[in-house]
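Sequence in, structure out. First:
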Amino acid sequence: GALVPIQPRGTKRPLFCVHGGAGTILLFQPLARRLGPDQPLYGLQAVGLYGGEAPQRSVRAMAERYVREMRSVQPGGPYRVAGYCFGALVAYEMACQLKAADEWTELLISFNGPSPSYIARYRPLFDREGALRDEHGETVERARRRKPSLGSDLRHQLVGDGTVAERLSRTGAEAYRRARREAASRAQRARLELYLSLGRPLPDSLRENSNFQRIAKRAQDAYRPRPFPGGMLVVSGQGLYHSDDLGWSEHALGFVEAFLVPGRQPVPRRTMAEPWIGAVAERIGAALDALEPS
């Protein structure tokens, strides 16, 4: 199944957290520890990530499945749902589906998860997590400089060390290795497409994060959100994004609060790790406590 009890104990109403593009839920463990032993926290990981089932290919299908599994733990609302990065889209759709079923989501959280309008507006200017800096901490504009062509590589190596024959040999060997890598990547993508088109579980060789990120990217691009009448809490790393609310004010009709995690996080996912998770957990804990019956 998709539902994983990260921290199932406690008397409070549970928080359900949806995976990012890679499909895993390991990044929620520091948050669960920080929120303490009385706050249940469940992760929703990508179906098929560990075999047995075919991956789901749309945001709405993911949301339907996750709502069903969430309700096996908590049959009735109100609900508290969060999503990291791509998972924020799924969490938002879960809230929409729950509203259509006359159930209420009293807390909806985006962890570094850009909205569809943000993605459409800023796509050329951010990395795969929607941030201004890439996974190495460099600005996206700098990281996206065009890679040297084979011709420029050849010119560079011909003026390097060694004899002309040795330099030509090195250049040819590098071109051969590059061609083999590109061919292997194309072959893997073709195999992935075949398994997805047949609706079959992925073999071990295809169950890697990059392929689930491809599936998430396609689902993200196809998703057309409905308005949600409630509000959202948008958590993001300070200085990582073009707008503080990541565009969610254009979709959630209630109050959208943007919480900027203080300090320079080199990449979005570090917001969910120590030491930054301390500030995140403090704000999330306050939001959860405010909803508990007095």
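Second:
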Amino acid sequence: PLEDTIVALRPIIPQLPAAWGGLPNSIRLLDPSMHEGEYLHGANTTQREAMGLPLLAFNPDGEPVDIVNHFVNFGWEYVFHCHILSHEEMDMMHAQVVGIAPAAPTNLVFAKMGNGNNRRYELSWMDNSKNETAFVIERSSSSTGPWTTLVTVPSDRLTDGPGTGSRSYTDVIGNPNRDYFYQVYAINVVGDTWDYSNPAFNQILPGGGWPTLTLDSRSQTGPPVPAIAAPSILVGGAVVKNKNSATVSLTWTDNSNNETGFLVQRAYDGGFTSGVVNATLGGNVTTFNQTVARGTTFYYRVHAFNDTTQSDWSNTAIVTTP
């Protein structure tokens, strides 16, 4: 009782199949069990203050806020929790939020059209991302800049849905007749962007309330993260250890020179959905021994990882203990 547990997490971004084209953000209501626009329980702070009741809702800076149920971009959201039932029942469960930069748009085309006050530039580009929240359009009178931000065009994933395709924008320039150049990049704003400012009872600046993280596709134009070669030739065997136990021994070939560790995964089936157990090893390791039950068939596979990515899985080794 009354004990706090602090857990430090460092996410490893998985190596996704190229055919997926990335993953969309988790954009959901703060409380999916309530209707949009309703006050969260006890979070109508304006009303509670007027009634002389204790205030229950505050932002991270300790400022009182009203909290209305609304949609928030939680990025790549993953729920972690404790399987000890008493812990699980005491809300020892939380969401890990990972912000991922969107893929850069390509095939930007722009052309001047119309006359007089109707003179305009028509822009179009290819959206290659499933997780951008907006596109930033920059304009310059020279092809080499300097560039100034013209407009930020929201990409409403709640209505557009995750996916890619052609996007467009019209820049009305009117008179005088000028030549412009354009460039476009995608951004992903992860976090709660709701405006919680209310001069009546908090000191939050307009547009603020909670911290957010903004990532943009320009970071994707640098050197790509080096891939990690998957281990291969995974082979396993088993010998009797004692009356009830056997020892499984695995060997594999390390094909990478940039891993920081290996993950060995065991299961009761080849789809690795039943009885999954993981073991983490250091880098440059090619053997693993494990004590398991006798008279059982196990399936094993291995992948390599480092601080930023992971390899594909090795072949699957099937080991039946004596």
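Remark: The longest strand covers residues 181-191.
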